Please model this.
Amino acid sequence: MRARTAWTVVAFALVTAACQAPDEDVAPAPTATVTETETEAARGGTLVVAITADPGHLNPAITTSGGTHTASELLYNGLLAVEEEGGEPVGDLAEDWEVEEDGAVYRFTLRDGVTWHDGEPFTSADVKFSFEQVLLQYHARTKASLASVLEGIDTPDERTVVFRFNQPYAPFLLQLDVTEAPIVAEHVYAGSDPNENPANTDPVGTGPFEFVSYQEGAEIRLARNDDYFKEDLPYLDEVVMRVVPDDASALLALEDGEVDFLWGVPGPDLERIRTADEIVTGETASNPGGSNCIMTISFNLDRPVLADQRVRQAIAHALDRQRFLDQILFGQGEVAEAPISSGIAWAHADQVDLPEHDVAEAERLLDEAGWKDEGGATRVARGVEGVEDGTPLRIDFLHFPTFSKYGELVREQLGAVSIEVALRPLEPPVFAPTVFAQDDFDSNVISYCNGPDPEIGVRRMYDSAQIGDVPFTNAAHYRNPEVDALFQQAVTTIDRDERADAYRQIQEQVARDLPYVWLVETESTRAWQDRCTGFKIWTGLFAETASCRS
Amino acid sequence: MSARYLLRRLAQVPVTVVAIVGLTFLLVHLAPGDPILALAGEYGDAEYYAAMRARFGLDRPLAAQLVTYATNLLQGDFGISFRLGRPALAVALERLPATLLLATAGLAVSSAVGVALGTAAGRRAGRPLDVGLRVGAVCGHATPSFWLAQLAVLTLAFGAGLFPVQGMTDARLPASSLGRMADLLHHLALPALVLAASEVALTTRLVRAGLVEAWRADYLRTARAKGLPDRRVTYHALRNVLLPVATVVGGRVGTFFTGAVLVEIVFAWPGVGRLLLTSAQTRDYPVLLAIFGIVSLGVVLANLVTDLLYGWLDPRIRYD
Amino acid sequence: MTELLLRRPTPPARHRLVARPLRRLVTSPGGMVAVSLTATAALVALLAGRIAPGDPFAAVAAPLQSPSVTHPMGTDDLGRDLLTAVVHGVRTSLVVAAGVAGIAAVVGVVVGTVAGFRGGLVDDLLMRATELVQVVPRFFLAVIVIALWEPGLDRLVVVLGLTSWTWTARVVRAETFTLRERPFVEAARSLGAGTWRVVAHHLLPNALPATVVMVSTVASGAILLEAGLGFIGLGDPDVVSLGYLANNAQRFLRTAWWMTLFPGLALVVTVVGINLLGDELDELLTGRGTGAAELSSRRRPAAVRGRGIETEIDGKLLPPDA
Model:
């Protein structure tokens, strides 16, 4: 958080300055220092962005897929926006809002004079339509959190939208940015199946850039929206998103000048890129696919081997989490200090007791639990409940192929306390049903993104109602009625101190039960040419205020 | 070659392709994995996933799915891509030109270089040049294409700045059509060279072997005895060697598709190879099968043409 | 009596077809290079546990150290000794190669023999199947199988093995056709020698040159393929192979050159050795350049008389795609 804050301040200053005095066509200062805030943004030019995955389509309202969101958010807006990482929301399509009835009613006043890229006016009907017909049907995160609590949406006039909930609902304002709730046009999507509407690959939005072309697997071209509702924005004439699947090639392209902006720098090259001339870097914990992510090991609590808390605690002690940070992430992030990410500062509990790296303690706990080291490579069961005597202590470990290094470190470190680990790399479409529908795993690693509020991304991991075949919910099959009740208590009050208290109790409880091991909070390092400036790297509207000298 | 033979071979083409695609259909659908995730993102609820599954017919028994699929396939319908929501065949065909361009360029380069090297080696069989070229060819053939691609990007493209690092075109497109053509060729050069590298070895070997053999043939011995200059003799010999070499190279279309996958990934070349990998990772079955259909058809046709051409050129071979 | 009769008319079999070329192999310069490279790789594989004792996955030193006396090939990103990894990687790759070539050879010989001896409908069906398998894009199939089922060397070996036999089958079948009509085989069969006896004594020695080339092509192809799959992240995570090392090195191309160089060199050396060996054996066994031209002239019509797809260049059948 510390390193991040410093950057955020600079970026925020940049953005503010850029918004205030962008009238004249003057080149900004060459380096990203605070002095730059004094100068004005350059106009025109093309920004070339490397993306790693082909998005498939460009409708961020029907999916939470990071690929689609990365490539399409510049075309759209939310009701609100995030102008600072982890910060309070500010107006985007809405210019003003009120929270009524202790958080059970939210009333928004929309900006005047906003038009869609095809010239049609934007109204409150578009907002109602987007939520009711698209987001609550197809945007998995918004649907999962809002569908059961949102009672209705009223549009008293063209510029007013009212959301009514069946209980006070605290995190709503954090769920309205372009990532969580992009607003799409009713006149484009009405009467059609949003999944099959041709506009998904020929999109019409309100965002700073308009769609020009999409060549599947190759590139997406966007052009400046001349009628953008934010005065003078954007500065760039054109944004080209180039699909470059190989990280090393993407990095070379940046260093070579073929590409101007990179969403992530591979760890091994970080040192060089940070100190490179002409390249600027910035860290963020927010990605269009999700924010405040913690690499988390889940234990299958339904398996006799892992049902014993002492075994889970032993595994936690056996893991040296600093090595995950140093050797896999090359320092991009931090060792997790609590079950909730430090990115949600108010809910993150400091001083939670998480097991530290302690091999002797791990061995003691395993012995105590009945797993004896009898000189062989693997411990064997001697009087473990539900396990036949002599069974070797062998567990499998499921992971996405991209997370194979986590598996290798776990295998090595558990091997040191004579636990045998078999790795099973599975692509996401196989991983999800194997873990969540079939419950066929001993342990796994998942990047659980906590999102902007614990209700959005944390509750799903612990709530016993979230055990089932929905991907990336309660993988551990953790059941604790107290924890369930605390989550319910935390969402129905909008008093932040009360909520923080509930979340603290939850974190202390799960840190004792250890259904998971929270390894490391991850960050991404964005990198861009220093002739470009003004990026909001924590949001999908990252290039709204960007400019490049030619 | 009789007309009956030709007809029979032609009739086999669709049967072969449908058989391969059908077998692959079973293979793909028996595999574990849920394509729904690629469609819906990760946070959906059960009802939503069930609805999506029903929409794409994934909730029906495998046998029923196969029957439907086969019926549609016979009408040239490969289904709708799970990931892109468009006809799978169209998705695959869109990527084909990029791969064909790369493979054709690779083929052209490897043939030209291979013939040149093979001729040089064949004329001096056993001499240092021959041995050197042979060593080079063997090493070239043994170097993995991805490794060669990475080294080429690092040295020739990035280090020396001779070529672009990625893509098929420059993101900042030149205005004139001539400029665009030059830009495309500039982007094509390095991946084509890398793709050609391992095939050069084979072509070199074939040409060399053919030349050595031809050199011993009676008519060339006679020609040399009569004082025809070596250059002319080589020309005659080469003419007899090249046609069979061409047919062999034509029969290796599959290899070029294979090499293209890895080369496409390193160079961010938007071709079929990368589509295959993406589709496999996201379980986009219809696209996977469409790619299989297209590639199999390509290989079958290439083999057919090669055989016919060879039979036509070499009267020693009779097809019955 | 049958034994005698059977043996006497045997064509110049093993001793001439195998022993003499083998002697030539170790005396020709190319052959010596081929044999020494392959032998080195094979020795490394056999003695992997001796040369580099210890778990190749164990962290033994600080990560990303350049080559030194204690770690001649340096260490990787998790602090593992690269020499140990390369030694075990070569072993894995050779095992994969041997497995693939073994399956391919067995299936090829069986299919070719059955098709050749039985003829008729069986032959027709088997040849149709062969043509089908021949056009399956092998790498594409491997990508699909590995990506859809979990990564594992076992399934890689099976997929590659089951798609690499077609060429052997064709050659064996063609040999069978020739042999079937030869007087000594007819004599043997009329005396009640079983089919497989005829196969073992007469057919296999004749099909050997082609099978040897096939084995080397398929084996080196399998090694390269395993590396390629590793590169795109579809390698087996539980075994150190050259593909695994290629994948691991990918991110460190510019920061730890040793991680790319040494496994890469090991791979190139192994593949070159196998390829050269195949080439040399082929030349010696088919008599190319050694004056034994009658062999290739005898084989020509047999191969050509097959189903028509065979592409033959001057007596030399070409292996299919690697």
In short: The first strand of chain A starts at residue 46 and ends at 51.
